[in-house]
Design goal:
By secondary structure, the chain is an alpha/beta fold. The chain folds into two domains: about 220 residues, Adenosylhomocysteinase-like (Rossmann fold); about 160 residues, Rossmann fold, CATH 3.40.50. Helices cover about 45% and strands about 15% of the residues. It is built from 17 helices and 15 strands. Strands 9-8-7-10-11-14-13-12 form an eight-stranded mixed sheet, with helices on both faces. The structure holds adenine. Adenine binds next to helix 3.
């Protein structure tokens, strides 16, 4: 079997970790049992580019149980759990190409190794597989029946490809399922981002001015959790509606240059470029901490820091100190890459359970359409509503929660327009 990982000897630790995550993934477990019986992915090759974590391992094992031939590489050079990668190869026979800290060349070599199986389905987190296929490996596109995309940033890239008429196969935007972004983006990013910042720095959040850049689902989650730990939260937004929402949620809202004067920690979650840029970096306080939880490492203007600093040193793992020309020190966490996966372990299994249930069922959906002789257009699609609803019901059930149903009288009331005052 082909693979490229750090060390196979790490497999036993990785296996424990995969099983620990599995215990908190009841929805994915039930899909795995069903897949093992029905084998809906028999004969299908899946190329996956996802964060190589214990939760992703459970998804890969589920797809394989469904009959798929799976290959996996990392969707970020810093997010791989090397012991998990070792176990995937040694214990589960899943060809994995990922090493924590790999450089950009190795990162792209690994993407190419995954594409070498000539996949029928791509499973992306950030759209790097799609991007490589559309630029350098176009000959492989004829084999592809569809793809899935996990994250906001990837969906933005894919929608822009669709709009420019260059997208060559259909993609299901897993991120847009309610059972994905309501929970993974908000509670997952909220908790794991704080976890990454604390593991890297061990600072006390209580009493700190914590600046959240971007108030989408992820920003909402981070702001909520930082507040919960006693921080004084400031939100930066460019969207007036979201800015009002942040203010009414109880946060301070202001311009970046104002926040620069008081912020102790800046955290970006926008999917955009240089949002922690010159206006902040040129005037922030001595010993400001900056970190990013957006998908790409483009959100902090590292070029500005490099150009305007005398020296850079690694102070401790995941903390780099830039000594600026004017004597201020700015600390960058996890090299500006996703701090929740670089410095911590990413979102907890219990929330990835729903995200990855969407991935598994979306892959099955793509195959079932093909088997029924139907085809999707070369567009970005939402996850079918019945899949989303089914996952919500399974999750609620696994939590031991029962909820009420509409009475026939209430159903009738909701569906009629006759009844008024
Ligand atoms: N994205 C965020 N957290 C993750 C995790 N634990 N596994 C895979 N992808 C993730």
């Amino acid at each position: 079997m082909d693979y490229d990982i750090k060390d196979k000897e790490l497999a036993s630790e990785g296996k424990e970790r995969i099983q620990w995550a599995e215990a908190d993934m009841p929805v994915l477990r039930s899909i795995r049992e069903e897949f093992s019986r029905r084998k809906p992915l028999e004969g299908i090759k899946i190329g996956a580019c996802l964060h190589v974590t214990s939760e992703t391992a459970n998804l890969m094992i589920t797809l394989k149980a469904g009959g798929a031939d799976v290959r996996l590489c990392a969707s970020n050079p810093l997010s791989t759990q090397d012991d998990v990668a070792a176990s995937l190869v040694s214990d589960y026979g899943i060809p994995t190409f990922a090493i924590k800290g790999e450089d950009n060349n190795v990162y792209y070599d690994h993407i190419n190794s995954v594409l070498d199986i000539r996949p029928n389905i791509t499973m992306d987190d950030g759209a790097d597989l799609v991007s490589m296929l559309h630029s350098k490996r176009r000959d492989l596109i004829e084999n592809i029946i569809g793809g899935t995309e996990e994250t906001t940033t990837g969906v933005i890239r894919l929608r822009s490809m669709e709009k420019s008429n260059v997208l060559l196969y259909p993609i299901i935007a897993v991120n847009e399922a309610k059972t994905k972004h309501f929970f993974d983006n908000r509670y997952g990013t909220g908790q794991s981002t704080i976890d990454g910042i604390l593991r890297a720095t061990n600072i006390l959040l209580a009493g700190k001015k914590f600046v959240v850049v971007g108030y989408g689902w992820c920003g909402r989650g981070v702001a909520m959790r930082a507040k919960g730990m006693g921080a004084d939260v400031i939100v930066l937004e460019i969207n007036p509606l979201k800015a009002i929402e942040a203010r009414m949620d109880g946060f301070n809202v202001m311009k970046n240059t104002e926040a620069a004067k008081t912020g102790d920690i800046f955290l970006s979650v926008t999917g955009n470029k240089n949002v922690i840029g010159e206006p902040i970096l040129s005037s922030c306080k001595d010993r400001t901490i900056v970190a990013n939880s957006g998908h790409f490492d483009a959100e902090i203007d590292l070029n500005y820091l490099k150009k305007n600093s005398k020296s850079v040193r690694t102070l401790k793992p995941m903390v780099q100190e830039y000594l600026m020309n004017d004597g201020r020190r700015i600390y960058v966490l996890a090299e500006g890459r996703l701090v929740n996966l670089g410095a911590a372990e990413g979102h907890p299994a219990s929330v990835m359970d729903m995200s990855f249930a969407n991935q598994a069922l979306s892959a099955e959906y793509i195959v079932s359409l093909k088997n029924d002789g139907k085809s999707l257009e070369k567009k970005v699609y939402a996850v079918p509503e019945d899949i989303d609803k089914n996952i919500a019901e399974l999750k609620l059930n696994s939590m031991g929660i029962e909820i009420d149903k509409l009475t026939p009288e209430q159903e009738e009331y909701l569906s009629s327009w006759h009844l008024g005052t």
